[in-house]
Specification:
It contains 2 helices and 9 strands. The protein has a 9-stranded antiparallel beta sheet, covered by helices on one side. The chain is α+β, with helices and mostly antiparallel strands. A hairpin with a 6-residue loop joins strand 3 and strand 4 (73-81). 19% of the residues lie in helices and 39% in strands. It is globular.
């Protein structure tokens, strides 16, 4: 998706040069962290409906891109990569807008997390700590790529989420 992060699991931290990726997203600013599940559910159901209407298929797994360090709220884009032009933004019920965006290219650090989403906070802390110990300067944005599609029958221990951030 971004020049290699989802090609193969990165059990060890890797630094790669990634290409910019065109995306279809739903953007939210100052969205309450406690309500992220609601945002994800609304985003993906609306997003996939718009893509289907426009004859566009996702070109990779879903992701969440953060424009700032989360606190009680997030500035986030939830979406999928696409390999076609989305065209005009589409407004859905509740003021949700599906629009074209991009994941930036450049020097990125990647690490695959295996396990439930409840372990992502700790995984990010360890990932960023390792980067800093190597002298890397972490830049915004950063994102998660949900390589394994979640579902009611999926064992959380088998979920793979790639953690990705720009670095200098």
């Amino acid at each position: 998706m971004t020049g290699g992060p989802v090609d193969e699991p990165r059990r060890e931290l890797a630094i790669i040069d990634a290409a910019e990726v065109t995306t279809a997203v739903i953007r939210a600013e100052r969205y309450p962290m406690a309500e992220l599940r609601t945002l994800f559910d609304a985003a993906f159901s609306g997003l996939f409906a718009v893509l289907g209407q426009r004859g566009i298929s996702p070109a990779g797994p879903a992701f969440a891109l953060h424009h700032r360090q989360p606190d009680d709220t997030v500035d986030i884009e939830v979406g999928v990569p696409i390999d076609a032009d989305l065209g005009e933004p589409a407004e859905l019920d509740g003021g949700i807008v599906v629009e074209q965006s991009r994941i930036p290219g450049g020097r990125t650090a990647v690490l695959s997390h295996f396990g439930g989403y409840d372990g992502l906070g700790q995984a990010w802390e360890e990932f960023l700590g390792e980067l800093r110990s190597r002298g890397a300067e972490v830049r915004l944005p950063f994102w998660e790529v949900y390589v394994t599609e979640p579902g009611p029958d999926v064992d959380p221990a088998t979920l793979r989420t790639d953690l990705v951030t720009l670095v200098e």
